[in-house]
Amino acid sequence: MEKYIMALDQGTTSSRTIIYDKAGNIKSVVQREFTQIFPREGWVEHDAMEIWASQMGTAQEALLKAGLTYKNIAAIGITNQRETTVVWDRKTGIPVYNAIVWQCRRTADYAAKLKPHEEMIKQKTGLLADPYFSGTKLAWILENVPGVRARAEKGELLFGTIECWLIWKLTGGQVHVSDYSNACRTMLFDINTLKWDEELCGLLNIPMCMLPEPVECSAHFGDTIDEIFGGPIPITGSAGDQQAALFGEACYNEGDVKSTYGTGNFLLLNTGDKPVYSDNGLLTTIAWGLDGKVTYALEGSVFVCGAAVQWLRDQLRFFRDASESEDIAKQVPDAGGVFVVPAFVGLGAPYWDPEARGAMFGITRGTTREHIVRATLQSLVYQNEDLLAAMKADTGKEITALKVDGGAAMNNLLMQFQADISDVDIVRYASIESTSLGAAYLAGLAVGYYDSLADIVASKKIAKTFKPSLGEKERREKLDGWHRAVKAAMAFHEA
Ligand code: ADP
Prior knowledge:
Layout: E1 4-10, E2 14-20, E3 26-33, E4 45-46, H1 48-65, E5 73-80, E6 86-89, E7 99-100, H2 108-113, H3 118-125, H4 134-144, H5 148-153, E8 157-160, H6 162-170, E9 177-179, H7 180-183, E10 189-190, E11 195-196, H8 198-203, E12 213-215, E13 218-223, H9 226-229, E14 234-240, H10 241-248, E15 257-261, E16 265-272, E17 283-290, E18 293-302, H11 306-314, H12 324-330, E19 339-341, E20 359-361, H13 369-395, E21 401-405, H14 412-422, E22 425-429, H15 434-446, H16 453-459, E23 462-466, H17 472-492
Parallel strand pairs: 1-5, 5-14, 9-12, 15-21, 21-22
Antiparallel strand pairs: 1-2, 2-3, 4-7, 6-8, 10-11, 13-14, 15-16, 16-18, 17-18, 19-20, 22-23
The protein binds adenosine-5'-diphosphate (ADP).
């Protein structure tokens, strides 16, 4: 009987299920959007029950669409939006409050109060004191939802991030686990000892009996209950979306790095078996736990990547489809001296200036739409290069290749410019679905569907490699122009 892996990809705006064969070909895919809840300015919630229903619905439909039964599925792998926080009743399975989403800033004041402890937080968790992570979101639920603290202290309630919630639901409430790559985003988990940390839980006043058991990313967590697929399927893979993408891009060696060019951009560098702490505002995170070993990563993100292309499309109305940006930019040999700084929501690493706003420099009477489009695409590359430079500084090591995925990675002009500016080979695999593939690989490894990492690497096809072709002097000049532009944009709001 032909066997497949089912990947559950629980994202911020939609739940998807993809069924893969061993070569990574898609047998079927089903996607369902769910409600985004904005109760107040800056607050973002999801209904955890709707997440569950949409995820289960897509899984059942994907199986049906592929003409398969549970017997054809060797294993399930899960990847998920990270940091989003759910608290539910361990008996009834009913959440006590909506899931508080990673984007939600309601705990900004709480996180600010943790600033005096930031060095301790960094050493233990690899993170910054920021509302982005689950810890303050969980503390908020405990403090603000009536009756919740007392019930939690009595051991009646459970906490989990989304992979934990889905595994609990899939196993009919029998398994309460969180894989290391997700646990490490809570700000409650010590990435060195691989345990929930008493001091951090004390600081945030969190009863430790609510916390799931931390587990590796590729292991037999449990089986789905028969009611869901008609028979059991083992759940054997789990990783947060960005770490899953790193795994899906086969970044298995120290020094391997991937970049996901989506709405924003996430860059992760495999730093091997030791955490590397950043002096440049990058996060230290667990990439995955596998076969008794933990692999760490440095993570940097750019807030505005493909979103800048959307801005050209929707606000400036330069084109109708993001993919047209490439042909338009190609109509000019260069950006004509224009630099766009797309700091629409401030600047992240390595600048960390939340007040900064976008700017455009070097405009003349001859500047055209084509120049602005080209300069905007180039800005995505420069932002990425700033993160790569920070990673090189933090590790003291060279980076020779960058593996790419995400929607904007299909833009060849953009990829060539990245190769030129970062002076690295850009590797684009045939499938840029690396997030769900990563979850499928982790699940497949645990059940022998894949024998080894080498087996996975052998199954992957490189679609295109972009080689650097720019001289060092020209590269330096362009980067210098970018850095002057960023500095000028930051100076604008300082006055
Ligand atoms: P997400 O998962 O964050 O929604 P995707 O990986 O689907 O993002 O990528 C979509 C983003 O990539 C959009 O912001 C879009 O503007 C941009 N994009 C898609 N195709 C191209 C392209 N050919 N050139 C440049 N940008 C693109």
